[in-house]
Amino acid sequence: MLLMAVTLVSFRPRPEAAKEEAKIKWLTIEEAFALNQKTPKKVFIDVYTDWCGWCKVMDRETFTNPSVVDYINKNYYAVKLNAEQKADIVLGTDKFVYVAQGGRGYHQLAAALLRNQLSYPTVVFLNEKFQPIQPIPGYIKAPEFHQIITFIGGDHYSKEPFDQFKTKTYQQKYSVKI
């Protein structure tokens, strides 16, 4: 009996192991594009740079929130895009390249997605046809970010203003603890 109790205790999942499982399934933009051709889904893109401090805070605090992770993984193809990466990106027949500019350059795809307003972090949302819905610049805390991803993911952006969604629809439909 004691052996059985010890065995059961040793096979229980540890709380820290459960936390490790709550991760966004990040893809490259090329992977998301290919998957979207077969199974259309909205796309969420985190446009960042290696030197961006607020990008790291969003990675650590916003993108690890279990409610955010769960909603993103169920409703979007999630992409991490380094705005200063040097590798070419080909999406269908379109090729995007790195543009050297002084000590730091930028990637053409990042500039296109951010409407030439290079600011980091910026999250960008694309519809199921890989067309831009909205770039949103700046650091966003998990509670507000959950409102944004449900507003866009649930197609509420085409039906009501965001302020109305936050105070009414979100409270009724997505009441989660964040």
TrEMBL record:
Domain Spermatogenesis-associated protein 20-like TRX: 21-102
InterPro entries in UniProt: Ssp411, Ssp411-like_TRX, Thioredoxin-like_sf, Thioredoxin_CS
Entries under Pfam families matching the protein: Thioredox_DsbH
Keywords: Redox-active center
Keyword Methyltransferase: no
Identification of the protein by name: DUF255 domain-containing protein
